[in-house]
Write a structure and sequence with these properties.
It is a single chain. Helices cover 72% and strands 0% of the residues. By secondary structure, it is an all-alpha fold.
Length: 87
C-alpha cells in the first residue's frame, strides 16, 4: 500500500477530474490556454515531440491532414514569393 505522502496524483478525486474536463468543454479560452501549455511541454522534449507527432498521425488523422494541408499551402506560398521569405 502506498503512502498518501508519496503518491502525487494530479487529481486526487474523480470529481476534480470531472470538473477539469467540464471546464475544458465549456470554456474555449481555458481549452486553448491548456493546449498551449501542453504543447509547450511537448516541444521542449524532442523524444516526446516525435511520440506526440506519431500519436497525432495514427490516432487523430483529421488533425494530421489539416496540419499537412497547412504546411503544403505555406510551402507553396513561400516558394512563389521569394522576396518575402523572411517576413
Amino acid at each position: 500500500m502506498k503512502s498518501p505522502n508519496t503518491e502525487k496524483a494530479p487529481f486526487p478525486a474523480v470529481a476534480q477530474k470531472e470538473q477539469f474536463f467540464d471546464a475544458l468543454e465549456n470554456d474555449g479560452r481555458f481549452m486553448q490556454e491548456t493546449l498551449e501549455v501542453i504543447l509547450n511541454l511537448v516541444i521542449s522534449d524532442p523524444v516526446l515531440t516525435f511520440k506526440v507527432g506519431d500519436l497525432i498521425e495514427s490516432d487523430f488523422k483529421n488533425l494530421y491532414l489539416v496540419l499537412m494541408k497547412k504546411v503544403i499551402q505555406q510551402q507553396a506560398s513561400t516558394a512563389t514569393v521569394s522576396c518575402c521569405k523572411d517576413l
